Amino acid sequence: MKTKLTFILLLITAYGFGQDGFVEYKKEGYSIKYPKDWRLDTSGQMNTLFILFSPNTENDTFNENINFIIQDLTGQNMDLESYTKLSEDQIKTMVPNGKWIESKRNGNHQEVVWSGFVANNNLKFKQFFYVKDDKAYILTFTALETTFDDYINIGSEILNSFQLN
Domains in the chain, ordered, with CATH? Predict the structure, then answer.
């Protein structure tokens, strides 16, 4: 019993510290939590609803980021499985060195990891796809392939905080 209580207290403490220093961005239909030192851009650049940029660091010339877009699928009769397959096919054929690394269903969304040469960089992506009411909701974490592992924990924590209402 004492072991269970200690384990539960450790989980509660870890969760509390994991969310410490986070702020919430909430709009009608969705919300996301991100570290206070990340910059929120809601200007709509590149057809995004928002982009979260990691803080600048001396040795890292690329701003790791998370962006969110909504794609209209009206009339395309797509579900999550068919949307994921279409995305995989497009990445493999349209992105130089496009490589589909991982894809798994997680509740109401698909989680995919892929890499390729995009915007003159070798980038790696982790994406969450949601399909609901003839719309695809795409949440994307982007990093250089060389720094992806350095940022994936915080990137995943942000991605996992996303709520689609």
Answer: 22-164 (3.40.1000.10)
